[in-house]
Amino acid sequence: MDVKASSNYHDFSGLASLRKDANENAEEAIAPVAKQFEALFLQMMLKSMRAGVPEGGLFSDESTKMYEEMLDSQLSVTLAEQGGIGMADSISAQLRGPTAATNAKSADSGGAGMSGEGAALRSKLQQLSKQSHNSSIQDFSLSADKL
Predict the structure, then answer these.
(1) CA 99 to CA 104: how far, in whole Å?
(2) What pTM did the predictor assign?
(3) Averaged pLDDT, 66-85
């Protein structure tokens, strides 16, 4: 399957192909869709940055604004393809869930991808819940606060 992000901001056939491939195999389409989302975010960010710059001077007509919008759109796609701001990687990792290495680590620590402190806190809370199984929730939370 050839799932890839479009390399031009106006490549609608690439986006349509990405949508079709995402419907067929969602797992393979996570990274390209995340890159497209990052490109959209970067485009909005660049547009907001340009809006903050005062207008005026030699290049302040409507055609310049149109070319600047085209430049920002293409720049956002190019930046996202080259790594961008790391948003696509974070989105991909979040959508894929824990990896096999994280699963092995979490099995050892007793928690889903927790650090050592998180796993220790979870085990203490589990011990408290076993000790105070018949107590009220308020008593349980008060005893957990004493930790």
Answers:
(1) 9
(2) 0.57
(3) 90
